[in-house]
Amino acid sequence: MRILLTSLFVVILDQSAKLLVKGISVPIFNLYFNGIPLGDEKTLLDSFLYITFVENPGIAFGIEFNNILRITIVFFNIIIISGLIFFLLKKKELKFGIWFSFALILGGAVGNMIDRIFYGLVFNYAPVFLGRVVDYIRIKTFTFSFFGRNYDSLPTFNFADLAISCGMILLIISTNFFNEEKLKQNNIWITK
Fold first, then answer.
1. The pairing of beta strand 49-56 with beta strand 133-146
2. Of 131, 147, 167, 173, which one has the fewest beta carbons inside 10 Å?
3. Computed over its alpha carbons, how large is the radius of gyration of the chain?
């Protein structure tokens, strides 16, 4: 159960940050917050970390698809999320690193799914399942070229993306590098 609470915490953090960046209006509660205009950038750490409001209509790195494929991806993600929740509820004993990894991945996946499913409807620009994911964290790096294009920053991402990436890294570390059998096989295991 605590894994779902950890995932819920990730979702709340992610959605709160997205609503602060995008802005929200809830007339029933007399709540109005403008957020940052689309495409605008605010400096957090000069020459390194920025809040840049962009919306991603597709999947990773802004890869766009037609509406039918976008809806298919949403349903595929719902199946994966449901399977992950079922697995986590059935599996009672997991090492801390593994369950925390899954909690981060699940929370991040749900956070981005909320954008895709509901944001178009809530913000009145698209029907259900065709919303755009709000991205806002931009880290400037050294200038590099990739496929003939020059870049001076990493792709803009959000807290959900960060949770998924950290969860995947932690999962790889937890399952590969600290597996007792692998350590014994590679003569890395230290006995007392």
1. antiparallel
2. 147
3. 19
The total of structural domains in the chain comes to 1
Residue among 40, 115, 135, 152 flagged as catalytic = 135
**135 catalytic per annotation:** yes
> Quick check: is 161 catalytic?
yes
**Domain-embedded: residue 11:** yes
For residues 135 and 112, give the distance between their C-alpha atoms in angstroms, rounded to a whole number. 10
Across the chain, which distance is largest between two alpha carbons, in Å? 65
Number of alpha helices (DSSP H) and beta strands (DSSP E) in the chain? 6, 6
Does residue 190 belong to any structural domain of this protein? no
The SS3 call for residue 1 is: coil
User: Tens digit of pLDDT for each residue in 123-179?
Assistant: 999 999 999 999 999 999 888 887 888 888 888 999 999 999 999 999 999 887 666
Which amino acid does the sequence have at 80?
Answer: I
In a domain, residue 9? The reply is yes
Range of the domain at 137: 2-183
161 neighbors 17 (Cβ within 8 angstroms): no
Whole-angstrom Cα distance, residue 98 to residue 165?
A: 14
In a domain, 81, yes or no: yes
CB 50 within 8 A of CB 141: no
Q: How far apart (Å, rounded) are the C-alpha atoms in residues 166 and 14?
A: 14
